[in-house]
Amino acid sequence: MFAARRRRSRGATAVEFAVVLPVLLVLMLGIVYYGVILAMQQVLTLAAEEGARAALRYQSSNIQRVTAAYTAVNAALPVSIRSQVTTNQSGSPLVTCPTIASMQCLSVVLTLPVTTGATPLLPSIPLLPVPSTLTGSAIVQLVPGS
Fold this sequence. Notes:
Elements: H1 2-8, H2 12-54, H3 62-76, H4 79-82, E1 86-87, E2 94-96, E3 104-113, E4 133-141
Antiparallel strand pairs: 1-3, 2-3, 3-4
Helix pairs in contact: 2-3
Domain TadE-like: 11-53
Keywords: Membrane, Transmembrane, Transmembrane helix
Protein name: TadE-like family protein
């Protein structure tokens, strides 16, 4: 009785495996893909925070603060993505603080293209929604008169 039942279901395991394996592979690929995206987002945010912290290290002028901030940003970024990251250094990194209008803040914004450009960070996968760019930012309040 058990032998007859086993003979009838002999190919069922192979069919189940053939159906389940692609689903598991797509799931694993998605986990790895989004893991890389989240890791790169974290790298950008931490580099922006390092740059903002460097601006507070007792520079005497705002130009020195901005220079120190973006020097620290370049040191904190991995070499593999450093050339692809764009910053707001050439724009206006000194902004009015969002909380106290009379104070001046330094805004460090880093942008990294994910799936565009000459050398995309990650390959484009159909039907897998990913952001086209990642942005890391930090704002630090500058002490007036220092």
